[in-house]
Amino acid sequence: MVEKYANEKQIDKSLTEAKQMLLEAEPGDEAACRGRRTAATERKLTVERELKFFLLPKDPNDEKNVIVEIRAGTGGDEAALFAGELFRMYSRYAESQNGSRNSGEFASSLGGLKQVVASIQGQKVYSKLKYESGVHTRAARSGH
Prior knowledge:
Number of domains: 2
Shape: elongated
Oligomer: single chain
Number of helices: 4
CATH topology of the largest domain: Alpha-Beta Plaits
Largest sheet: 4 strands, antiparallel
Helix content: 40-55%
């Protein structure tokens, strides 16, 4: 964070210099000075966004595991097939993160899933899945 702050101060200095150069520029050099000012402004906005991210408080639940509940919505067998695909996606994600999952599944006639409740364990699982919710999916933190 200190490095980002120092970088922001350096960009401020560059931006001030670019503005001064634009004021003192010869008619043919104005475009180059505007380009330098624009580049410094864009770098400053990027660094400010990064600094704001560092200042956000940590969620105390980020280290916890999750329970993911997937249900087939309205749509019969097609919704069940989609729910099955969602579950396979979350399962592969858990495996790619060296996590594990335990689940209870209720299959449909075409191989999809009508309902599945899965516990996904791993490192910082909740921090990565806490925004996963929608018509078919809901993620909740678990106490373990």
